[in-house]
Amino acid sequence: MKLLPKKRKSSGRTGSSKGKHRMIQCSKCGRHVARSKAKVVRRRTNLVDGRMHKELKDSGTIIISGQERKFLCISCAVHSGLVSQRAEDERKE
Fold it and tell me: Domain for residue 91, yes or no?
């Protein structure tokens, strides 16, 4: 029986020696993906309106911004432009 060549050394996962990672749900399509394979997107969100933000900042108030964290599967990350596909000769390492 002939073994197929491996496309990636890491099998598409981030490096860790902890064994199997828990499954999470993609924020865009709902697909269940291993935590090590998902791409994390962090985005800062303003909790205050734009005009109010400027007035508060001028008065010297400390404004805390929230942080939104999303997990995307590889296909959604490629579709939204966060990750690009590599050339074929670069893939097989």
Answer: no
* Span 24-57, pLDDT tens digits: 999 999 999 998 889 999 999 888 888 888 899 8
Q: The pTM is what?
A: 0.67
Question: In terms of residue numbers, what domain contains 34?
Answer: 23-84
Burial category of 28 from C-beta neighbours within 10 Å (exposed 0-12, middle 13-18, buried 19 and up): middle
Q: Which residues pair with 75 in a beta bridge?
A: none
DSSP 8-state class, residue 6: P
> What's 57's domain CATH number?
3.30.1740.20
Continuous H helices in the chain? 50-58, 74-79, 88-91
38 SS3 class = coil
